[in-house]
Amino acid sequence: MEVKEAIRARRSIRRYKRKELPLEVLDRLLEMARAAPSGANRQAWELVVITDRLRLKGLVPICKEQAFIGDCSAFLVGVEDPHQKWAKVDLAIALDHLSLAATEEGLGSCWIGAFDPSRLAEYIGLPPDRTITVCMALGYPDEAPAPRGRKKPEELFSWDRYGVRERE
Predict the structure, then answer these.
(1) How much of the chain is helix, strand and coil, in % rounded to 5?
(2) What would the pLDDT profile of 149-161 be if each residue is shown by its tens digit?
(3) Which residues pair with 78 in a beta bridge?
(4) CA 126, CA 129: separation in Å to the nearest integer?
(5) Is there a domain that residue 162 lies in?
(6) Would you say the pTM of this structure is higher than 0.70?
């Protein structure tokens, strides 16, 4: 699969087959996150990777009762150094790389922003000098969502100045 195909094929998956993810596959995906660019190459982010089935189930009440999280193969908690200006952006780039690589592997992913930060921090043993930015569910899809509509290019892109919607 080419990158363009992975971008077009990726969907937010909210139904997973309860299936273990082989470590070699997980390692390949984590390597794609590690290969992502970061501001000044600081790499001011980390991922806490949860694969234990009981721990995955324990995430459900912490993540606003999103039951599918208990069925995914892995749950990634994106942690940043809050003192690094670009850490949030760098983490998003890394997770996007990982989600596209997951699509190529036939896996699904879903960005998770609905969680109780203090409870999740306690659950993973996060030190006070780190912050949870975003999470991601990962696993074998048990659904195939149709593509969703996208805005028209002229609604998203300006040329040379904000609001100039046509190229000259």
Answers:
(1) 40, 20, 40
(2) 999 999 999 999 9
(3) 47, 134
(4) 8
(5) no
(6) yes
